[in-house]
Amino acid sequence: MLTSLLVPIILSAIALFFASFLSWMVFQLHRDDWKKLEKEDEFLKTMQELDVPLGNYMFPGTNSSKEMNSDEYKQKWEAGPCGVMTVFPKVNMGKKLGLTFVYFLVISFALAYLSTLAIIPGAEFKTVFRFLSTAGLFIFLSSSVQHAIWFHNRIMGHVIESIMYAVIVGLIFGFMWPSA
């Protein structure tokens, strides 16, 4: 049955990719996710002078739980600032877009597989839509919420996107579900 879902899998990935473009570039749901530092030039100069390697950083940081319990660390934490930072190489937009499409393709395939375990051929649109949109919402939303809990990033755009993606997947599979 999974082979009969190849067209909706591919169409879902394409539709999700296009919806992602709309959310970022047209609706600009993520416009307020990132702020510019007031003293960006000084910050960039300091980062260059320190020759900070690529990676993820937490500040204040520790190398062990013992160090995290030290008075020195606790004082740094209380004094602030506290945060996380990612230093990455120059962005290869083509690679990022390609990986985003592959991500949507894998998710669409996984949702199609999951649906074959729960829904029979010939099921009504409403059944297929409800199942796939609910499963899609769980997939698209779950990691964003957990990440926001720990790292305090803004998630409203992700919540709206997740709902939009779930509806798209539900509609495509609902309309293209194989007959009995």
Automatic annotation (TrEMBL):
The keyword Transmembrane applies. Keywords: Membrane, Transmembrane, Transmembrane helix. It comes from the Bacteria. The chain crosses the membrane at residues 6-27, 100-122, 128-150, 162-179. This is Uncharacterized protein. It comes from Gimesia aquarii. The lineage of its organism: Bacteria, Pseudomonadati, Planctomycetota, Planctomycetia, Planctomycetales.
